[in-house]
């Protein structure tokens, strides 16, 4: 085997490896985006007669026969959109639980 042919095969292998790395990075980005939406309860995935329908933030987004393809198409459309801040469901500090005994208010003066 000639050195020129060997060099061409090595270059081809490097191109293949670089493409695989890019594909892995893109795959991780798409599924991280999807996982974040699921965690924030912003995505609904519905099985339809024709495949899968993804709805994000209450808007019908994409429909595809393959779940993987539907997620990737939705990510292509929505991934670069600014994210809304997650709504934190916290009680106020002064909220009382039903049936709980209220604590004394130590901050008021008793003269």
Question: Any overview of this molecule?
Answer:
The chain has 111 residues and is an alpha+beta fold. It has a domain of 76 residues. It is 44% helix and 16% strand. It contains 2 helices and 3 strands, in the order H-E-E-E-H. A 3-stranded antiparallel beta sheet has the order 1-2-3. Helix 1 packs across helix 2. The chain starts with a helix and ends in a 33-residue tail after the last helix.
Secondary structure: elements and pairs:
Blueprint: H1 3-39, E1 43-48, E2 51-56, E3 59-64, H2 67-78
Helix pairs in contact: 1-2
Key attributes of the depicted protein:
111 residues; alpha+beta; three-stranded antiparallel β-sheet; 2 helices; elongated
Helix content: 40-55%
- The shape, in one word, is elongated
Q: Report on the biggest sheet.
A: 3 strands, antiparallel
Give the oligomer, counting copies of the same chain as homo and different chains as hetero: single chain
Number of strands: 3
CA radius of gyration is: 26 Å
Individual helix count? 2
Mean pLDDT: 79
Strand content: 15-25%
**Biggest sheet, strands in spatial order?**
1-2-3
Structural class: alpha+beta
Region (Disordered): 81-111
Write a short abstract of this structure:
With 111 residues, the protein is α+β, with helices and mostly antiparallel strands. It contains 2 helices and 3 strands.
